[in-house]
Amino acid sequence: EISILYKNHQRTKEELTRVSGELHERNEELSDLRDSLEEKTKEVETLKSKLKESIDESERREKKLKKIAAAHKGTQQELNSAKNEMNRLNKKVENLSQEIQDARQTVQLKEKQMESVKGIIATLSKDIDSWGEINAANN
Q1: For residue 79, what are the contacts with CB-CB under 8 A and spacing of at least 6?
Q2: Stretch 33-50: mean pLDDT, rounded?
């Protein structure tokens, strides 16, 4: 009977060692995911800033275009140039909006991955606690 208890104790220790290793790996993955999320958050903030700059520039161009059109002082060439610039900026705004959307989706995916890893860690922690109780009971 002591031999069986000893074997069970040894198996529990081996399993605890294995699970501890897995927990360490999961913690490293979680840390990497947090770093990635932080990078993506910075990217989103940068893209937001770029989008705001583009929108501001587009609004300035639009006001300029309206002034030119209202005053009839601008030549057709200036008007066309301003329209082309506004179209270019509008396209840039569209592209930046898409980049922000892509970054948000990436952040959401990383958040889901982090939640999954947290669940695994919680399960492993419960298993470790249970093995500790079993080990304590066997001793």
Answers
A1: 65, 68, 69
A2: 91
